[in-house]
Backbone:
């Protein structure tokens, strides 16, 4: 098995293929707007929506850098500002989810089409080649997916027996 195949499996497990943890697409499927903005205590934890915005920020930034479109990459003053929400509406919650799914899939397509040399190409603005950056992004996603599941459980919104 080659490194691309391993990374594709890891990348898919973050979005739509269950492995050791539930994939984000299924985790977010029935999360309502109210559940998405809920926090157990103000200032103590991020909301589900804030976590999705954070994941989207880093994946979109990496995609733009990989594509050489650094003028279009999202900007943030610091890591805390990557959790910033757009205007809190149901439509924007749905739009954030769909954009995240789209960017994640676009990165997956790039990975699937990459030749061995491409996987180890240095991406401008990044410290590591594609293969290591996507591995790190997948681990980052998995970490925050766990937080999202935890927030769902705190709200009583996590099913006792899940279907996936």
Residues:
């Amino acid at each position: 098995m080659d490194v691309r195949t391993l990374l594709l499996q890891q990348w898919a497990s973050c979005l739509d293929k269950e492995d050791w943890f539930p994939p984000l697409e299924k985790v977010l499927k029935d999360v309502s707007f109210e559940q998405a903005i809920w926090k157990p205590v103000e200032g103590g934890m991020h909301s589900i929506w804030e976590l999705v915005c954070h994941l989207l920020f880093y994946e979109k930034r990496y995609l733009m850098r990989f594509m050489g479109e650094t003028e279009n990459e999202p900007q943030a003053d610091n890591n805390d500002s990557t959790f910033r929400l757009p205007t809190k509406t149901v439509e924007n919650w749905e739009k954030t989810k769909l954009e995240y799914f789209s960017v994640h899939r676009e990165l997956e397509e790039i990975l699937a089409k990459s030749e061995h040399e491409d996987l180890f190409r240095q991406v401008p603005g990044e410290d590591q080649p594609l293969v290591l950056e996507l591995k790190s992004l997948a681990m980052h996603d998995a970490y925050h997916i766990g937080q999202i599941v935890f927030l769902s459980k705190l709200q009583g919104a996590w099913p006792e027996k899940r279907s996936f």
